[in-house]
Design goal:
Radius of gyration: 24 Å
Structural class: alpha/beta
Number of strands: 20
Helix content: 25-40%
Number of helices: 14
Number of domains: 2
CATH topology of the largest domain: Aminopeptidase
Shape: elongated
Strand content: 15-25%
CATH superfamily of the largest domain: Zn peptidases
């Protein structure tokens, strides 16, 4: 159970009043003289983000007044756990999303710190298990991304998948090192072979075989130097987050398994580190993928799509009812949409529209970009079936998605998400650091589709 919530009615819990600046005068006129005097003497500024801690006549905290611009945007609650004194609070208009924001605003990454901040607790008497499932799953995503690669390389990521599987009675198989070549996963092996921590393919399965098959694929590049096409130092600072896709599919899998959704779940994670050594793969090399297509390496820093190619081929081989891959794939998607908005690509319009609608309802937005077929020629190679990179800098997110599309048959309903997986600055409920994006919306879609 999460410490940010209490479920038993507490007579001493402190009420929170949330108002818009336009409604302040009306609220103020309804207060007694003590409250009015307090508001005036403390020079409370009724503007968005203003907070007033109002005492009773004994000097104890009696109520909280919080002024925000939009009361329908539930993220306001994410600012309060650390802004309020430790104690128990209640809000009469509480719902799932407000509780969610409060819980996510209580997050702390403490693996390398000795002390934690005390946070305020919120009274939550209903739907607690559902809310906590989402919050704890997002905590998992954040923790995995925030952990430096020295403690979250391919083998440690594998251990996290195994631990999650044991908790929910799932199974995990691993194909490691040279066995990848023996089992026709040359793309995964080639990208990760330069690292002392051997590359591997993680394969988690859960659920009943007669249920609809849902397969998740997550990019698990635990660190990306860029390979021989090495990144500058500034470009490597956040590369511990390049396994963010893997973190996302594990977090989403946790949501699914905890909620016991009636699906036959499979999670595939190519876990590698894109390192530099004497046996690192090179620009100009040609790899034969699991599908049989040959891939010319135009740039070793476009490694994510290469490892995903083999994983997607394997995923599609079972003809799942739904295939979703999640990856921190391109800077181009961030240039197009910024850091908060994941790019969504799909070969199925109805699926894409339903996911966008679900994401919008959850305030977990995505934005669809096109699989614009004419751009496919930018990936042409003179010596192989396809190049992993284009010769220009245009439409990089689209061409990366078109590369992946080569490994997914048209008759498999597929969604590709290209996301940041990181908050570059702190916002209510979303602290700076690793972040789960889009999976609340996906989970809501899965619940509505498969649990109805």
């Amino acid at each position: 159970m999460l410490d940010c919530f209490v479920s038993e009615i507490n007579e001493n819990s402190i009420p929170i009043t949330v108002i818009r600046p336009d409604d302040f005068s009306s609220w103020f006129n309804q207060q007694n003289s003590f409250v009015k005097n307090w508001i005036e003497s403390t020079k409370f500024r009724y503007e968005s983000g203003s907070l007033s801690l109002i005492p009773d006549d004994t000097g104890r905290l009696s109520k909280v007044l919080y002024c925000i611009r939009d009361t329908k945007n539930f993220w306001w609650a994410g600012a309060l756990p650390f802004a309020l004194p430790a104690g128990v609070y209640h809000y009469d208009g509480i719902n799932k999303h407000i509780a969610l924001a409060w819980g996510l605003g209580s997050y702390q990454f403490l693996r390398y710190q000795n002390s934690s901040k005390k946070f305020a607790q919120l009274l939550l008497t209903h739907a607690r298990e559902d809310v906590e499932n989402i919050i704890e799953s997002i905590y998992l995503v954040r923790d995995l991304i925030n952990t430096p690669t020295e403690n979250m390389g391919p083998s440690e990521l594998a251990a996290e998948a195994v631990s999650l599987a044991k908790r929910y009675e799932a199974s995990v198989d691993q194909i490691v090192g040279e066995d990848l070549l023996k089992n026709n996963y040359a793309s995964i092996h080639t990208v990760g072979r330069a690292c002392d921590d051997a590359p591997r393919l993680l394969d988690l399965r859960w659920g009943q075989s007669h249920h609809p098959r849902v397969t998740l694929v997550g990019k698990g590049v635990c660190f990306d130097t860029g390979g021989l096409d090495i990144k500058p130092a500034s470009g490597m600072l956040l590369m511990k987050k390049d396994m963010g896709g893997a973190a996302h599919v594990l977090g989403l899998a946790r949501m699914i398994m905890h909620a016991k959704l009636p699906v036959n779940l499979r999670v595939l994670i190519p876990a590698v580190e894109n390192s530099i050594s004497g046996n690192a793969y090179r620009p100009g090399d040609v790899i034969k993928s699991r599908k049989g297509l040959t891939v010319e390496i135009g740039n070793t820093d476009a490694e994510g799509r290469v490892v995903l190619a083999d994983a997607l081929t394997e995923a599609a081989s079972e003809k799942p009812e739904l295939l979703i891959d999640i990856a921190t794939l391109t800077g181009a998607a961030r240039i197009a949409l910024g850091t908060d908005l994941p790019a969504l690509f799909s070969n199925n319009d109805a699926l894409a529209n339903d996911l966008i609608l679900s994401a919008t309802k959850e305030l977990d937005p995505v934005w669809r970009l096109p699989l614009y077929a004419p751009y496919r020629e930018a990936l042409n190679s003179s010596i192989a079936d396809i190049n992993n990179n284009t010769s220009d800098s245009y439409a990089g997110a689209i061409t990366a998605a078109l590369f992946l599309k080569e490994f997914v048959p048209d008759d498999v309903a597929w969604v590709h998400l290209d996301l940041m997986a990181w908050n570059i600055r702190s916002k209510p409920g979303r602290p700076q650091g690793g972040e789960a994006m889009a999976i609340r919306g996906i989970f809501n879609y899965l619940v509505e589709r498969f649990q109805a």
